[in-house]
Backbone:
C-alpha cells in the first residue's frame, strides 16, 4: 500500500520521509503540550490564631481573630490586584467572627471550604457540623476539607460528612510533624474520596508556608517550577497571620516562624504572584483541580 509522505528538511541534512499519520500524531501532541496551561492552586487556612498557645502564650480570643482578620484583608487585596483565585479553608468559629470577609471572598470568585469547626478541638462529628454550618450561613456548597495542622483523619468519616475532597496531606518527611513519603505527590482517589496532597519539589522538599518564609525567594521559585514540571501543577497553602508582624516577644516564636512575616510577607507574596504570571501559569480553585488535571 502506497502512503503519502511528508519531507521534513533541516539545515545541511537530507530530507527524511515520514508517513502523514506519524507527522499528524507528532504535531497533535506537540500542540497539546504547548496549549496545556500549568496551574497553581493557592489556598489559605483561615482560623483563630491560636498558634502562640503551642509556645506557652495564652493569647486572647479577640486578639486571635483580629490578627487573622488583618492578614485575610491583605491576602484578598493582593489576590484582587493580580486577578488570582484561591481556596480558603475556614473554621466555622473564624467565619462566624468575620462574615463580611467571607462574603467578600465568595463574591470575588474564591472558594470557601472547611477547616473543621474549631482549630484546636476536633471530633469526627465536627466534620459534618462544619460543612452544614458554612453552607447554611453563606449559601454556598462546601466540597473540600483541610484538617487543622494537617492532622490525619479517617477518609470514611470525611466521605460520610459529604465532602468530595480532602487536602490534609503533606507528602514529605518533617520530623515531629509529617512522615508521608509513601503518599503520592499527585491527587488520587481513596475509596471514593479525592485526596489532594500539598506541593513538594525535588527530593520531596515541601513548598509549604515555612519554606516560603525561609528559602530565598529565587530558590523557592526555582523549586516551584520544578514541581510544576514534574507534577503538572502545584497546590500551595498559607495562613493569614503570616501576613502580620509575628515579631511579638510574648508569642515566643522561633526565628524560622517569624522570618519574613508581616510587610515582608506581603511583598514576597506579591512577587510570587508576579512570577506566576510571568511564567504564564494560571491560578485555580481546589474544587476544579480534579477535573482540570484529569484532562492533561
Residues:
Amino acid at each position: 500500500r502506497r502512503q503519502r509522505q511528508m519531507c521534513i528538511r533541516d539545515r545541511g541534512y537530507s530530507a527524511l520521509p515520514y508517513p502523514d499519520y506519524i507527522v499528524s500524531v507528532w504535531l497533535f501532541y506537540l500542540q497539546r503540550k504547548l496549549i496545556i496551561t500549568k496551574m497553581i492552586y493557592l489556598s489559605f487556612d483561615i482560623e483563630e490564631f491560636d498558634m502562640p498557645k503551642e509556645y506557652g502564650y495564652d493569647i486572647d480570643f479577640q486578639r486571635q481573630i483580629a490578627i487573622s482578620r488583618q492578614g485575610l484583608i491583605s491576602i484578598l487585596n493582593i489576590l484582587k490586584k493580580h486577578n488570582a483565585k484561591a481556596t480558603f479553608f475556614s473554621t466555622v468559629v473564624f467565619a462566624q467572627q468575620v462574615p463580611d470577609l467571607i462574603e467578600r471572598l465568595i463574591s470575588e470568585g474564591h472558594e470557601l471550604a472547611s477547616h473543621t469547626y474549631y482549630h484546636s478541638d476536633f471530633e469526627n462529628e465536627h466534620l459534618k457540623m462544619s460543612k452544614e454550618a458554612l453552607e447554611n450561613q453563606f449559601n454556598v456548597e462546601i466540597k473540600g476539607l483541610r484538617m487543622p495542622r494537617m492532622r490525619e483523619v479517617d477518609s470514611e468519616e470525611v466521605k460520610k460528612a459529604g465532602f468530595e475532597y480532602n487536602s490534609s496531606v503533606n507528602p514529605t518527611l518533617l520530623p515531629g510533624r509529617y512522615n508521608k513519603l509513601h503518599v503520592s505527590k499527585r491527587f488520587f482517589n481513596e475509596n471514593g474520596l479525592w485526596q489532594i496532597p500539598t506541593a513538594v519539589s525535588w527530593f520531596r522538599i515541601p513548598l509549604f508556608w515555612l519554606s516560603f518564609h525561609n528559602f530565598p525567594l529565587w530558590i523557592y521559585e526555582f523549586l516551584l517550577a520544578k514541581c510544576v514540571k514534574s507534577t503538572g501543577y502545584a497546590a500551595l497553602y498559607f495562613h493569614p497571620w503570616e501576613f502580620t508582624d509575628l515579631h511579638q516577644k510574648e508569642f515566643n516564636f522561633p526565628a524560622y516562624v517569624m522570618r519574613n512575616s508581616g510587610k515582608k510577607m506581603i511583598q514576597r507574596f506579591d512577587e510570587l504572584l508576579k512570577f506566576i504570571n510571568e511564567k504564564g501559569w494560571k491560578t485555580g480553585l481546589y474544587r476544579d483541580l480534579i477535573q482540570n488535571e484529569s484532562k492533561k
Observations:
- The two ends are 35 Å apart (CA to CA).
